[in-house]
Specification:
Structural class: alpha/beta
Radius of gyration: 18 Å
Order of helices and strands: HEHEHEHHEHHHHEEHHE
Number of strands: 7
Number of helices: 11
Shape: globular
Strand content: 5-15%
Helix content: 40-55%
Strand order of the largest sheet: 3-2-1-4
Length: 264
């Protein structure tokens, strides 16, 4: 229990938290531990709503908040209105997180701080959004307590949280190669394609957007199943507006588009 006690202590050091709540394993775990440690009157879970958040993820946040009794709300972010974000260069996440901080800061009462579900594994990747959050005095309690992604999943399982094995679900803009302009139409196409594949039973999936071509990523252990259902997979992705459907034989790798930066 020492690890969980360390996280509770890290949360308690900040007194009152506004937790950026995407519904993923990390932010859900942080929100639940903070809620259980500090109580709902001192913890507010907030989900940022924008075209880069899939509708299914928003509904899952709503469901989790209801199940766990979280003090939950949503806030709209305006990253799509920022040209520096839409251009989609290597600093896209910086501009997105800046927009998030702009939206969350007005929700902080006296003494409250913004907390993000960053874990120790995230520190080694190209994550300019972490820099943006740090510049605005956001805190990372999971890092403070030394929690890795595996630790988050293990302790979520021990606590009986259904998010313990939830597939990672980065924002939809992460499906676009750097230099491809972010637009609502493109994000919607990616969302529809991924929703179609999930309806076929593939829980963990990415559809990387290359104009008329979709590059489908699933875990290596699911490659055979994808091929066995080739016709259904092609139909699901084409129905979202893609002309060509390809399969990445290396399997799903979170953040693999960072290869273009020499960082993955």
């Amino acid at each position: 229990m020492a690890e969980l006690a360390a996280l509770a202590a890290a949360v308690s050091r900040h007194g009152e938290l506004v937790v950026a709540f995407s519904g993923g394993a990390d932010s859900a775990f942080l929100a639940r531990v903070a809620h259980d440690t500090l109580g709902p009157e001192r913890v507010r879970a907030v989900t940022a709503v924008s075209p880069s958040l899939a509708a299914a993820e928003l509904e899952d946040c709503r469901g989790l908040a209801a199940e766990w009794g979280l003090r939950w709300s949503t806030v709209e972010t305006d990253e799509m209105e920022r040209a520096a974000y839409r251009v989609n260069d290597a600093e896209r996440c910086y501009h997105c997180k800046s927009a998030l901080m702009d939206a969350l800061e007005p929700l902080c009462g006296a003494g409250a701080v913004i907390a993000l579900g960053v874990n120790t594994d995230d520190l080694g990747d190209h994550r300019p959004g972490q820099r943006a959050a740090g510049e605005r005095s956001a805190v990372f309690p999971l890092v403070e307590a030394g929690f890795s992604k595996a630790d988050v999943r293990e302790w979520s399982h021990r606590l009986g949280l259904r998010t313990w094995d939830k597939p990672a679900a980065a924002c939809l803009a992460s499906r676009l190669p750097y230099g491809t302009e972010v637009s609502v139409a493109v994000l919607s196409r990616v969302e529809r394609a991924e929703a179609g594949l999930r309806s076929l039973g593939f829980r963990s999936v990415r559809v990387r957007h290359y104009e008329r071509t979709a590059r489908v990523e699933v875990p290596v252990e699911d490659l055979a199943a994808i091929l066995e259902r080739r016709s259904e997979v092609v139909a699901a992705v084409r129905s979202a507006g893609y002309e060509y459907v390809t399969l990445d034989l290396e399997g799903l790798r979170s953040g693999n588009l960072n290869r273009a930066l020499g960082r993955a």
